[in-house]
């Protein structure tokens, strides 16, 4: 089993690259953002609680997302690996994930971080707002807040995995296909070491 984290700020291309990666490697894709938006669409109590936080660009409480991931891991036995997108986003989430994976006798094989400058991230969110219907894309203050929350709460997650020597940084600017090729070459290499 090979599990990986696609790491990066809002708008860095995690979702875009995840779609290509799951097709090639048959990972089970776990995006906490997508899982939360599906709760919102179904108007569940969890979704209603999450919506007001997401609309402001704030994080949903750790115990909520950790619970969702724990359920998803249990619901998908026998997959060849998990691709985590937008999770973990705090050090507490990273520590909880490590424990959950250890319990299942597996671990994170690689953390690939997409590097994209802030003005490009904003430009991508502004552009996506035209079609995504995502309320957290439309407002400039919310976009800025998401980037601030990323720097304050989520960047430390990279250090958590750097200590375990698992982080590879990739340039996230360029064509989707060129970035995908770079990603695949990192993953292939990490998978070989992992075997
Ligand atoms: P989430 O859904 O995870 O959003 P995010 O991290 O803010 O990231 P995005 O989905 O906006 O960007 P992305 O990196 O996936 O980029 P994409 O491929 O779409 O989280 C949303 C909210 O949910 C959070 O704010 C929080 O409230 C809550 N939440 C989620 N997880 C949580 C957690 N673990 N803990 C607590 N709260 C949580 O690309 C962006 C745009 O750029 C697209 O339009 C795309 O077409 C375009 N694009 C992609 N690649 C390129 C390229 N190479 N060149 C040009 N354009 C490109
Ligand atoms: Mg995404």
Question: Nutshell version of this structure?
Answer:
With 195 residues, the protein is an alpha/beta fold. The chain contains 9 helices and 5 strands; from the N terminus they run βαβαααβαβαααβα. It has helices at residues 14-25, 32-41, 45-55, 62-75, 91-103, 118-132, 135-138, 140-162, 176-194; strands at residues 3-7, 28-31, 82-85, 108-115, 167-171.
Verbal overview:
By secondary structure, the chain is an alpha/beta fold. It has a single domain (3-194), classed as P-loop containing nucleotide triphosphate hydrolases (Rossmann fold, 3-Layer(aba) Sandwich). 62% of the residues lie in helices and 13% in strands. The chain is built from nine helices and five strands. The chain has helices spanning 14-25, 32-41, 45-55, 62-75, 91-103, 118-132, 135-138, 140-162, 176-194; strands at residues 3-7, 28-31, 82-85, 108-115, 167-171. A five-stranded parallel β-sheet has the order 2-3-1-4-5, sandwiched between helices. Helix 1 (14-25) crosses helix 9, helix 2 crosses helix 3 (45-55) and helix 6 (118-132) crosses helix 8. The model has no long low-confidence stretch (mean pLDDT 96). Bound molecules: BIS(adenosine)-5'-pentaphosphate and magnesium ion. BIS(adenosine)-5'-pentaphosphate is lined by residues 8, 10-16, 32-33, 36, 53-54, 57-60, 65, 86-87, 89, 93, 124, 127-128, 136, 146, 174, 176, 179.
